[in-house]
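Could you please consider the sequence and fold following this short note?
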Amino acid sequence: MLRCITHSRLSGSILLSGAAVPRLSQVTCTSTWASSSSLTTAKALWCSATAPLRKDIRKNDRGDARRLTFEERAERRMGKTKDQRESREQLAQEAQVMVSEDFPEELEAIYAKTSEKANISAMKVLNMAKCLELLEVEVAGGHTVLLVKVAQVVKTSTTTIEITPNSASFGNTILQRVSRFDSALQVSKEGTKIRVVIPPITTARRDKTVAEVNNLISTFRQRVKQSRTKAVKVLQDAGLADGVQQELTALVDSTANAFVEEKAAELELLSEEVMTMGIDESDVAAGR
């Protein structure tokens, strides 16, 4: 009796409230939705719980997923792509070529100009005749050739050189070129020949030449320093990795320092030769 009353009261209360009695299909649908919602929630919880465990798995892998290498994980954290990595590697290779090939070539070019000037200064004291033979003269058409190609150069005495042009048309050109070469030379024209009187070798001339060579050495060091600064600036602006940039900068420094010391020693040796080789005018006077 109690169960019937309770049941009747429940039905009556539902009817009084105006609510309809739920059908079986509605109950089944509600139960299914609740079950589906529970599965979705469980899946989301599983994914969020296992996400840290899957961070090192390559995306879009199928089947057995491969774990990433240390470098790949580092690149993923830094946001690098494969193209960016290849571009950075190519940039590092180009920087290596610049440091190992281009930079030494530039240093050699700097030294070549310095060495040429230093040797000319020394030869003016030690062997003026040889200097004149290697002197370049401009001919028709704007071309430059060695003096010995357009004239005969003969040393007639210890202090005199005669230049005989192969053609009379070269006479004035050779005269002007020799006069500009060294203001200490006494140049005159005798008929078709050009007579050059070489000043005697004195201690004052030697000292002057050594001073010129020392000045060239100082300029050489400064130019190498400027070249080194430019090379380092290129490395800094290239956007290289810190380790690569430091390594290449150290290589630039060691290359520049070793090159300067080696070539400066050669130029200093040339200065010593200027001071010791040849016979001074004072020596000739003493021999008399």
User: Anything to note?
Assistant: The radius of gyration is 46 Å.
